[in-house]
Structures are given as structure tokens and as C-alpha cells.
Amino acid sequence: MASATKVSILDYFTIVFEGENGKIETNCKSCGTRIQAKRSVTSNFVTHLKRKHPSMYDEFVKRKDMKREGYSSGSMHNFTSNGGDVRYTVPIIAGAAGGVAGSVWSPAGVVGARSGGRVAKFDKHDPRQVLISEAIAKMIVRDLQPVSMVEKEGFRALLQLLEPRYTPDSQHHIQSQLLPAYAYQAQLATRQALASAHTLSLSLDICRDKAQSSSGYFGVTCHFLTCDWQIRSALLACLPLTDACSYRQILSDFEEVCFSHNVAGRAFRVVSDPSPLSVKSCCLPGFLILPQQENKLRGEVEEIDNCHNREESIPDSIPNGHNGEYEESLEQGLGACRVDCFARSLEKCVKEGLRSYPQLSPTLRKASSFYHYITSAVPAEKLNQVFDTTGLTSGSLPSALKDWAVQLKVLRRLLDSVDFLEEMSGPGELSLGSSERALLRELTDVLEPFTEAWDMVHGDRQSDLLPDRHVPISLAMPCVLGLRKHLSETTAVHCPTLLAGLSQAVDCLLAPLLHDALYITATTLDPQFKLTWSNNPDWHKQVVLGELTKHSTTSNGADPSTDLQPEYLSAPTPAPPVSPLSRPCKLFSFIKQRPMTQTKSLEQELAVYLREEPTDEEVLHYWRRKAIDFPQLAHVAKRLFTIPACGTVVQRIFTTAGCCHRICDLPKNLETLIYLKVNYRLLWT
Q: Where is this region: Disordered (predicted)?
């Protein structure tokens, strides 16, 4: 017999005052927050628990559900076996044959009793109904599933099994009302967060389907610093590319997005590539990891090998129907404020190097066949000794189909244990010969520093996408210097063409940033590097001083280079607020006046900063701590470290979605789903 104790939201609050007309004042038992309301209106209490204490809110909902199921009346029926141990407990449904419909001794019978037509459905405003609808919307967003799945018979049967009282929302309701409402909430939260941002930079990502050049999307992502030096990223907009879309139209839409989110005139830099991105990432030609995808993707190996030839034939504008006229590129439209994405340039270098040595494909294809063979022939416990527990085994890593760095790690582990694997699987025609092993070993050795740079920029790509993970551009110069040193000191016996292709690509795509004052300054202001990388510290120090002088003068005006920048990126930076309280002359006369000699020049600040020993402290944490000691350097650091070195979350979503489907085959509301997926934490945490 269940207790008849009433379930009330006020159980989670302490009443400290009770006035007339049912007015009460309470304190939250968990956080002490004071809340005023009426006893008859409990929405304030429910909202507080839902926002501030979700676990307590879930507990309240469950208690309320149990109450609704019949615990208050005590008319419960317990099914027992094995000496009276309770097995199932369900409410008795009046009018059902034998008290319970269906099989008495099975869970299916219990569910049948609850779904036999006599279970009262939730009201549309019931907290449990709203909670389940929100959970379904979250699932659709996180997995980028089509909204039409809510109409599927199997999905609805699952909901009926789990919660018979829930009334599923229709596809039309979710697509036309629920998701747009969440998108509107995310926009409000984004605008509110950006209103207090000190400095910010933008990323412009374009993704299109090469099979249909007019199909695709472009996203605008903002990277900004909060008042406590925390870096945050938010997707401002994800818009579909139309048939009539051109670079001019993209720039116009980009400007409109900036104005609508009140970031026009505040962006320091825009990270973008001058040419449209395809949905394919670089991968080792012929080395396909998943055996179930081998037949499907066998024809794509040649496509990967020849992708650069096709890319060279693509104009620098998105075709407008059959109009072949070239229009101005993004590079020209954004002007001097545009910078290349370092991660994208690094990937291009690897792609150019692999393209320069097409003889790799047959050997890599044989290594792929050997991998498929040993993962099917060798027991799983033996494979774990080679591929440990990171999931680098057959059928468990779909991203390896598109990520050359992951494929290279699999190949290296395969080579490190090839003798052991051959012994376990037995001799066969798929075994790798000595010359093939030597070639693959040289390939992994040559590309190993590129993999290290890639991992440093991207981190753990197999974990959930983290929109707030930010890699500053200060890593770019040390990576380029390390790659050039590695390539100059490496001798390739089996694949010299690969080495030459990589060297040429690095010199063409990455080496120019070694002379870019923006990258030099960012690397110098990173406390782990300073000028330890420089072979000419005096010259680089002068470059840094020039760049610091240019940007530090913008505290009371616009950037000196605004004549090269679009109008919407050239507004002045607001001056820091000054305390409105003036110091009384007589009352505070005992306090010593602040000496004017304490103010250091920009050159003095830089000299003191460089004399300190480098530290491994996280760069933004360092400048938050040192902002008082080096105010002018910190002012410039705030701007520089909003520029990301890695691709944005939306770019990775474009790639992931494009590798699974053609863009034109994805859900029609994909732009809304991507927008909510990237801003998930901003909306639902």
C-alpha cells in the first residue's frame, strides 16, 4: 500500500514568510535563492528547479508521475514469485479481465495493461509531456536526423512502450514550431552573450556538393572573449546556397548576419578560404578502413586520387545556372581582414603531397585488404593488443574513411605488429612483402610530424563536437618551422616524390605566414613560445613592436588598416569603463598619489615580458593573470587569440554529413538542425 503523502513543488523550498491572499516568500533548499509567488501559482518554483537544479526537477517529475499512476489510492497489484519477492507492480485497471489485461506474468502484459486504452494521456502542458518532446527534439538535433522519423511506426511503438501517456508530436509541429522556437531562443542567447563580448573574430565556412555545385550551405561562426578571458564560439547563421547564389550574394548575406547579431564593426579578423569547400576530406588513397564500405567506395578511390585535377577546373565562384562568368572572390571581398584557416592549409599540403606520388595507391590498397583480413581472422582479444582500446578496429571507426591522420595511425600500428598479426592469421597471399613494408614505413615516418600538427590543432575528433574548443593561431608558426625542419632533414629512399611534393606544398601554402606580422606577434605573445623560435630575435622584436603599436592605438579609435577593410568590420573598439566615484581630496588625503612613473611604454612592457622565462601556462589564463602587469600587450592579445587555427564545428559537421550522404539528400531543414547542434550547449545547459 503506497503512502498518500501529497507531492508538492514546495517540498523543495522553505517558506520564510506568508502574507495575505496566499502570497509566500521561500528560499530554495539547494541554493538559497529567494522566490516570491502565490501558493496557487507554482510556475516560478517549477521554472527555478528546471533551470538551476535539473536533477531535482527530474525527481519531482518522477514523484508526480508515480502519484498519477495510482499510488495515492493504494490500489496496486503486486505480482510475486520465489517466496513472495516482488517482481512487478502495476496499477489495477478497472474493467480489465482478471484485473490486468494481457499476460499477468510478463512485462509485456504489464505494458499491455497500461496501454489498453484506459490510460489517461498527458495534457499538452504537462511537465512530463514537455520534457519528452524536448528530449526527442534534442535527439533529432544531436544526430542530425530527419524530422520525419517521428512519424515512423517503429519509433511511435517505442514511445508507446516507454510512456503510454505521452502523445507524440507530429512532424509538422516539430518542423514548423518546435525547432524554430528553439532556434529563436538560441539567437536570443547568442545576441545576449555577444553584447558583453570584449573582442571577437569570425569564421566563414562554405560547403557544397561537387555533383551539384549550386547545392550546399554556408555558416558564420563567431569566436569571442568574455569579460573573464573565457573563449566562446557560437554559430550565428547556417544558410542554404541557392541556385542563383554567387560570391557577391554570400558577402551580402554575411554582412546581413553581422548586422543582425550586432557584431558589425567589431570583428577583428575573418577566417575563410578563398575557394568553396567540398564535402570530402583528405584521406590515404586506397586505404579504406570499413570492410562493409569497400565495394561502395572502391570507385571513389580514383576520385580521391584525381580530386585535385577536378578542383582546378572549378571557378572561383559558384555557378549561377549556366552563367560561366567569374565574380569577385571572397578574398577580394573581405580584404585585408581575411586570414586563411591554418588547419585547412595543413590538410591541403598533405593532399598535395599524396597526389604527387600516385604509386602509393596499389600498396595502400593491399595494406587495406590485409587489415580487413586480419580483423576478421584474428580474435578480438588479440587485436586489442595491437589496436588497444581506442576503437581502432574494424567496423568501429567510420570517421577513418575521411580522416587521413586516423588512417595513418591505424597503418602505423598495423606495421608495428605485422609479424605478430601474420603469425596469428597464418600465411596468405595478402601478407605484405618487405618492399611494401619499407614503403609504408617510410610513408608513416614522413607524415608523422604532419599528424602531430593535425592532432594538436584538432584534438580528439572522435569525441562529441565541442564548439568552445579553441586553438589559437600562435601554434601555426612553430608547426610550420617544425615541418620545414623535418622535411629538410629527411631522406626518402622509397618515396622521394612524396617528400618533394610535401616540401613544395609547405613552401607554397604555409611558409608565407612566417613573414606575416600577425602570426609573428601572436606567437611571441604566447607565453610558451615568446621569441625562443626566432633565428633573428632583434628583427622579429621590431616586427612585433610595429604590430603592437598599430593595434594598441585602436583603444580610442578604429584600426589603422580600416581603409583596406569592409565598412562592417571597421567600427572603433569601446574604451574600458572608468569608475564614476571620484576620490575626495580631504577625506582621502592620507592616501599616496598614484605615481605616474609606473606607466610603462609599449616597448618597456614587451622587454619585461620577454625577459620572463617561457611557461606552459594556457595562453588565455596567462593573459588574464598578467593583464594588470602588461595592459597594452593584453589589449592586443585579446584580439589576436580570438582567431582560431582550426576549423569550426560547423565545418566538421559539413564534412561528416557530406561523407555519409550527398548534401542534396540530407533533411530539408538541415540548416536549422546544424544551427541548433552547434549551439546545443548554449541552449540546453
A: 551-580
Cell output for 429 = 597471399
pTM summary value: 0.71
DSSP 473: G
In degrees, rounded to 5, the angle at the alpha carbon of residue 203 between the alpha carbons of residues 202 and 206 is 145
Spans of all domains in the chain:
291-401+404-460+473-509
How far is the C-alpha of 93 from the C-alpha of 100, rounded, in Å? Answer: 6
Strands 267-271 and 200-209: what pairing?
A: parallel
d(CA 208, CA 194): 29
- pLDDT band for position 595 (cuts 50, 70, 90): low
505 CB neighbour count, 10 Å cutoff: 24
pLDDT of residue 411 exceeding 70, the answer is yes
pLDDT above 70: residue 581? no
C-alpha cell at 39: 501558493
With beta carbons less than 8 A apart as the criterion, state whether 550 and 494 touch: no
DSSP assignments along 43-55, one per residue: HHHHHHHHHH-HH
121 close to 114: Cβ distance less than 8 angstroms: no
The C-alpha cell that represents 672 in the structure block: 536549422
pLDDT of residue 274: 60
Nearest to 237 by CA among 214, 221, 216, 250: 221
Q: Are 144 and 672 in contact (CB under 8 A)?
A: no
Q: Could you tell me the sign of the dihedral formed by the alpha carbons of 69, 72, 74, 80, in that order? A: positive
Question: In terms of pLDDT, which residue wins out, 676 or 585?
Answer: 676
pLDDT of residue 113: 42
- The pLDDT value recorded for residue 634 is 92
Question: 250, 272 in Cβ contact below 8 A?
Answer: no
Asked if residue 139 lies in contact with residue 149, where contact means CB atoms within 8 angstroms, the answer is no
Tell me the C-alpha distance between 76 and 99, whole Å: 10
Q: Which residues pair with 207 in a beta bridge?
A: 217, 277
pLDDT at 556 exceeding the cut of 90: no
User: Are 465 and 647 contacting, i.e. CB atoms less than 8 angstroms apart?
Assistant: no
Question: Cα angle vertex 164, ends 158, 165, to 5°?
Answer: 135
DSSP 218-230: EEEEEEEE-TTS-
Q: Would you state the torsion angle of the CA atoms of residues 333, 336, 340, 341, taken in this order, to the nearest 10 degrees?
A: -90
Do residues 554 and 573 touch, judged by C-beta distance below 8 A? yes
Cα atoms in the 13 Å half-sphere on the side-chain side of 45:
25
Return the higher-pLDDT residue of 484 and 100: 484
Report which of 234, 184, 233 is spatially closest to residue 471, judged by C-alpha positions.
233
Q: Is 638 buried (19+), middle (13-18) or exposed (0-12) by CB count in 10 A?
A: buried
Q: What are phi and psi of 477, to 5 degrees?
A: -60, -50
pLDDT digits (tens, 9 = 90+) for 56-77: 888 888 777 766 655 434 443 4
Cell of 656: 561528416
Greater pLDDT, 566 or 649: 649
Assess whether pLDDT exceeds 60 at residue 561: no
Q: Give 431's DSSP letter.
A: S
CB atoms within 10 A of CB 376: 11
Strands 23-28 and 34-38: antiparallel
